[in-house]
Amino acid sequence: MSFISYLVSGLSLGSIYALIALGYTMVYGIAKMLNFAHGDIIMVGGYAAFLAMSASWCPIWLAMIISVTVCTVLGVVIEKVAYRPLRSAPPLAVLITAIGVSYLLQNIALLTQSATPKTFKSIAAGAPPFLLVFEGKAPLFFTKLSDSPYGGESPVLTISMETFLAIVVSLVIMAALTLFINKTKAGKAMLACSEDRGAAQLMGINVNATISMTFAIGSALAAVAAMLMCSAYPLLSPTTGSMPGIKAFVAAVFGGIGSIPGAMIGGVLLGVIEQLSKAYISSQLSDAIVFLVLIVVLIIRPTGIMGKKISEKV
Amino acid sequence: MRKTTKNNLITFGGTTVLAVVMAVLSAAGALNSKTSGLLIPMGIYIILAISLNLTVGILGELSLGHAGFMCIGAYVSGAFSLVFQNTISPVWLRFSLAIIFGAVMAAVFGILIGIPVLRLRGDYLAIVTLGFGEIMKSIANNIYLTEDKNGLHFGFTNPPSGIDSETKRELLKGPIGMAAPQDTTIWAVIAVLLICLAILMMFIDSRSGRACMAVRDNYIAAQSVGINVTKYRLMAFTLSAAIAGAAGALYSHSISLLAAKKFDYNLSILILVFVVLGGLGSLRGSIIATIILYALPELFLREAGNLRMLLYAIILIVMMLWTNAPFGIRLRERILNSGFVMKLKAKFNRKKAGAGGAENE
Asked: Please, are residues A101 and A124 in contact by the beta-carbon 8 Å criterion?
């Protein structure tokens, strides 16, 4: 049973990674840059939701909308101010700028919100756990432990509402995103831009607007991931976003950067690997194991699971 | 004299004079304790900055794991010093051996990591080196090394099994860190700094250094004229790692209790900021930028520690926009071609011409 519980928490963490990795992989596919600040947008989303929720008049659904809006605007502004002027610059310059933006967001948060971690109120606070499994009895769905018909017996497996929400919300968003990209005109424009930016422009696609839209979608997904993540792991500090951000990038590379199904598979696999290695190998070394996975993947199959090989043209 | 040689001599001479003057002032008690306390860390940061400049500026690859190599150097040399604290008696000999040992181990890791990692380029290389730095930090954070009458015990649990508790002496204490002997003096830092600077200058000005720059400027063209790309990239990467290891050795012997969490991603970024502000590929620039960015805020902005980090972030973004964005380039040209700057330039050139004429007579 404990294995299943680790597996479920790995799936839940993995779906959050997958949401973040989608942002990385879409931006990488279209703008051909590693948006290092993506992890810190998660942190900003967390703080926006936290500040909104700490106002007494603000219901949770409004806080969620505020958080998504703030992140979307922030993503578009960062792209306009910092990345767009460097579109024809060497990759090293863009990468250093992205690191600068990430550092800037962290330090602004540090100055305005202080380094002390805040306790994030779960978006599913007060909700009953999704599933309770007891030894030899029928499982209970959406029932509080205090309302259990089995008296004081303690369950062998509990799946919390947050865990359940993270998996379901991620699945819904991924399905919607896949539909959006393959069926709508704007989504097809994104595909065209990632295939060949110059040719897309010749076909009458507004490349700048498409790239802005990509950043907007990626940042909105980051806000959703922020709320799911902070509900499951409720400590919020200015560096909250950087580690999940880097791990989600590992997930994106793992699945093949630029590929949307790849980001989903990579994210889920990475979450499961992380939780299982935390449980069975060493909790202190789990980060090291995640990065080891990245190094091994890049050595064996540099294009990732779903990536395609591109030969360099002179 | 060649222009490069002349430039190198100016940088080397200037650094020597500045370092010796500061050290003498500090020894004579002319500086207050705060300023002289800054000299050793500043020297160490300069060594780190010039070594990272080799990877980022000359090789053209962004390494975000520089703190990882520093961590290896710090831990290996610190453990060496602790183990031989009572065996090798002259401090200078033990300390020199510790630095060399730290640098060699960092170089070995540089090769081990470099062989797989240098198959990648650009963003991938950056993220893998970042991962490497994090791995090194987590491992160093979980190492325990204990000595007793039976010898050394090494492990990832505390305490490693089978310890004789009477004679035990804890050397590496996991997350608590390690207390290496305080051997680092300002003169040791200056000596290592000048040696590393000389090595880097000679490397950059050599055939290998030029090969690295060719690879940076055009990978495919360099490959097509027969440059062994992997060999030169690995050479530069390893040299950079070794120098970072030496800096780590100096660092671990300069603070009383060293914990592995110091060697995080932020440290790598900090060094990157020094390199970027100083100018990619310019050793002199790295040295000047480190002095300005490290010393000035420490002296004048001490209370506003967080503001300093904010400043670093803005410097990174503005420098990149200034040197690479179209409007930055236009603005720079307008300033450089404005009347005032032109006048200054003309004055400077005339003076230089006058001096040159005097030399010819």
From this structure: no
